[in-house]
Amino acid sequence: MGNSDKNSDDISVYIKDQEYIANRYVMKCLNVTMILYTIIYLLNGLGIFIVDKMLMGRGFFPSVVIYLVVLIFSKKASLSKTTTKYVILFGVVVMFTLMGASITYHVVLMSILPFLYAMLYSSKKAMRFVYILTVISTIIVVYAGYYSGLCDANMLLLTTGSMHEYVANGQFIVTAVNSNPAVNLMLFFVVPRCLIYIAFSAVCNSIIKIVSGSLEKAKLTAQLEEAKEEADKANRAKSRFLAKMSHEIRTPVNAVLGMNEMILDESKDENIRGYAKDIKSSSLALLSIINDILDSSKIESGKMEIVCVNYSMGSLLNDIYNMINIRAKEKELEFIYDVDANMPSEYFGDDKRIRQVLLNLLTNAVKYTNKGSVTLKVSYRMQENNAIIRYSVKDTGIGIRKEDIGKIYGAFERFDIARNRNVEGTGLGMNIAQQFLKLMGSELQIESEYEKGSEFSFEIEQQVVSMEPLGDFRAKLSKAKEESKTYKEYTAPQAKVLVVDDNKVNCKVFSSLLKKTQMQITELQSGKECLELLRQQSFDLIFLDHMMPEMDGIETFHAIQDDKLCENVPIIMLTANAIVGDREKYISIGFTDFLSKPIMPADLHKMILHYLPEELVNWAD
Ligand code: ADP
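# adenosine-5'-diphosphate complex -> structure
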């Protein structure tokens, strides 16, 4: 039964198609007819005159009005085929009756034409019927009218003066050629009359089609806009939810990581230090998942922007090295840095996004490689004043099957699940990397051999700021390592630092991280308390949390600015709302800088050393 249903469906689709083709064909014919009709009249040398008269002739306007009304009615009523046939029949009968009573036949003819057109939509046969009926009825009307004298020739022509006169006076050019009035009548009245009605109907029909089409379009557009608004609303809700969740999750993770750092700092027991290290790596993994989800939702909602600044290639590569080298070491992989020493050292571009892409690729390379090496190769070529930098991340890992390579950019795509079940991941890393690269006018290239290894690479064009060569990167790396060791060994007992966070544990973490520096740290839990204290006391550095009840960090910041409570004191936004792009937001509000939670000890020290007046810092020997 299902089959026969399907067949009948197919057949009706086929018929519909055929009708559609037939209707289009008819429309074309009608258009051509219209043109031919005009040409015939033009040939007669009376085209303009007749058109003029036609528009003003008696009965024409009422005919048109009736025609349109009936046409709209018939379309609206979507009459069934049988009803339409009856209506037509009725129309024809009425037409003849009225003709006998000397009523303008156009009124009648034009009134039934729409019904014929109602049928035009339903079948090809009906269309043929329309043609034939129109032609026959016109011939009958014209002949009957002419010979019986019941119908005024004026009305036929819609001109002044009788048709007979026109023909008899030889006003038609062709009359001179053909003196037979019956032939002339056929040539110059009957045929053009038939054609004009058909063409007129076709034109009206097209207009109605266009009007109803555009109405439909407007309706569709409105519906689409409504749907888009709904989707936008849902997306905004999702972003709000994510921002909130990010804050909610980051805050406790901050406490976990901060306290854990204390354990790592203070405990001498290797077992306990081992547990603490596991806590650290799991917390960091949790953070990276949250970050991925946030980034991905930001890209999705189109809010991800490229922010270009001057940056140093040295520090970009240094940061990456520090982050990846530890992971590579943990898996006993060789981490090879192959950087062109001649490449320029400073560029203008979005170093944060490049860093993120490279970190994603390198993290994967380490994750999916069990033995061998991971290589980061950085090379360049100049193109006028810009450098095209090529980054390549190569590993000797598990590789990707050919059929999976194309799918790698899809969000939440992961392969070889059975084999990688112990490897943490969301399947978002590659998707984010590719989206970032797209934003920067680049794209990821992947070459991989299953069970042998993979190479991910991309080229990026960057404006060169300093042509000074980068130099031997390995030498720089060891120097940077020394520097990073030194920054911890300082004290600043005179420095007064204020930290405002409604979460007591966070304040405690903050103070604990700075314990060794002997700074005077004041912890407050609300914006109000902060304003009160600032009226009495001054500080060298202020850290303000964003999300606080009653008065949040931004409101507190504005109040501090308005009351000029501490001019020239750096105020740093301390927040768990670390969605990419937030940094720019806080800095544009007026904050000196931005530190995201969980606070990484190295970042905190770096920031403090950057903003604390130098005379307050005592370096250890
Ligand atoms: P995940 O968070 O799972 O690592 P990604 O989007 O970063 O998600 O990567 C998608 C999938 O591509 C991974 O699950 C893995 O199957 C495969 N993949 C990515 N990088 C590598 C690589 N260097 N070697 C082998 N497979 C990889």
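# post-check
The longest helix spans residues 181-266.
The chain is about 60% helix and 15% strand.
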